[in-house]
Structures are given as C-alpha cells and as structure tokens.
C-alpha cells in the first residue's frame, strides 16, 4: 500500500496521483485493480448511492458502514474517508473521537475535512493524535447552503487570496494533502506551486499533483447529468439497464430459465415420489 511518503515523493517527481471514490466492495475492488493510488470514501455517497440531494444527511454510521466495505474490497489501497457533516464542528473531543472510530473500526488510513480557519485547528489536533488528514478547500459541498450553490470558487482577487491563505493554513496544521474542488486552473496551479504537500484537484485543471473523480461519474453509473469537469469514461448505466430489461422480458416471456440454468434429478427418484 502506498503511504504518505509515496504521495509526497509523487508530488516531487511529478508522477500524477490517481484518486477515485468508492463506496462498496465491488467498486473498491475495481478501483484497486485499476491501480488507483488512493480511494476516497466520499460523503458524496449520500448523493450517488443513498439518493439524498446533498451530502448534509450523511452520518458517521453511513461512513463507517461504507468504509468497512471499501476496505474489504481494496485491502491494499490507501483509503481516505470523509468526516460527514457536523462530525467535526461540535468540539475537538467529538472530532477526535469520530476520526478515531474511522481509523480503528472502519479501516480508514486518513480522514478528510472541509474548510480552514477553525478546521485548521482540528487538523492540527488530529495530526498530533496520529491521524493523517486530507484537507478540502474550494467548493466545499457541506457548506453549500452558506456558499449559495455549487459554483466555481476563488474567481475574485479577494477569494483567490483567501483560498491560498487557507491552503497554507491547512498545510501548516499538518494536512498530508489537499483536495481542491472547482477552482480556476490558474489558481490551482499557484496553490500547487506554493504548497509542499500534494494538491489533488477535482475541477481544478491539469496542473495539480493528482486528480480525483466520483466513481459513478467516471463509469457512467446512476448519474443523469455530470458537471463540466467530469469526463465519463464508461456507460455502465446503459449496459446494466439493458441487462435488466432483458431479464424482465425473458422471465415474462418464459425464456428464462432455460435448460442450461436448471437443475435436474434422477428419474427413478422422481418415480418414487409420484408413487
Ligand atoms: O465526497 C466526495 O466524493 C468528495 C470528492 C468530490 C472530492 O469529497
Ligand atoms: Na466529500
């Protein structure tokens, strides 16, 4: 399994870090097989696998449950788990306790928190406690209500300067990497250059140390509309839906099961049963 030192070295040598989300055993298995360097058990699971319309309803129980499944599917891959909404804002004690559960019970190798300022203090406390933290800045979906929608961040001089300052704060606090979501590529490049830790972008251009995307967006599974920054590499939905249409149609048309999918027994035994 790759470690923090490997990710740091990748940034230094320019070898790109490939990160993808996974939420269950089969997706984690596929991600590991594909050679992903890091798997994110993102709280995006609330939207893509649980059907909520934001990440706000996601709980610690959800994150533990899904991280355990991902760990079983990808035992050899570095797993980052999102700390869900309000699991790190109530108190430092609460934050440490929740992060510890993810590390000890669920199998996370690191946790991810959105934000800087107060959150930087928490990054520091977690790091001191031996818990590796990935920071998350730019578009931070848990604050969508405060941000006023899913929009590109850091476009004004003031917002860009604040983002750079926040990124430095997170690094100073001990973050092992920074996920930067939905920012202009020029700003992402500047942050990547100013920071010594790897910046992993999503909608942040090509000049970051790595990229992260959501599994369902990449494979085209269960998503109707994807944001501009997503490249869909597959059409899983179409293939799966086709299979399901065919199955239902075969059952209704009595074409399934055929002999090939059917068990038989010795005729003598059967005669005995009929008497
Ligand atoms: O929850 C998630 O999937 C994320 C990524 C989009 C970075 O936080
Ligand atoms: Na997230």
Automatic annotation (TrEMBL):
Question: Mind telling me what this protein is named?
Answer: 3-methyl-2-oxobutanoate hydroxymethyltransferase
Per the UniProt entry, the Enzyme Commission number(s) are 2.1.2.11
The UniProt function text for this chain reads: Catalyzes the reversible reaction in which hydroxymethyl group from 5,10-methylenetetrahydrofolate is transferred onto alpha-ketoisovalerate to form ketopantoate.
Q: Which parts of the sequence bind Mg(2+)?
A: 43, 82, 114
- Identify the species of origin: Metabacillus flavus
Alphabetized, the UniProt keywords read: Cytoplasm, Magnesium, Metal-binding, Pantothenate biosynthesis, Transferase
Please give the InterPro entries that the UniProt record associates with this protein: Pantoate_hydroxy_MeTrfase, Pyrv/PenolPyrv_kinase-like_dom, Pyrv_kinase-like_dom_sf
- Give any Pfam family that matches: Pantoate_transf
Q: Which SUPFAM superfamilies match?
A: Phosphoenolpyruvate/pyruvate domain
Cell compartments where the protein resides = Cytoplasm
What reaction does this enzyme carry out catalytically?
(6R)-5,10-methylene-5,6,7,8-tetrahydrofolate + 3-methyl-2-oxobutanoate + H2O = 2-dehydropantoate + (6S)-5,6,7,8-tetrahydrofolate
> Gene3D superfamilies, per this entry?
Phosphoenolpyruvate-binding domains
For this protein, what does the record note about how its cofactor is bound? Binds 1 Mg(2+) ion per subunit.
Mind listing the GO molecular function terms for this protein?
A: 3-methyl-2-oxobutanoate hydroxymethyltransferase activity
Q: How does it assemble?
A: Homodecamer; pentamer of dimers.
Major place of localization? cytoplasm
This protein's pathway reads: Cofactor biosynthesis; (R)-pantothenate biosynthesis; (R)-pantoate from 3-methyl-2-oxobutanoate: step 1/2
Q: Where, if anywhere, are coiled coils annotated? A: none
Q: Which gene encodes it?
A: panB
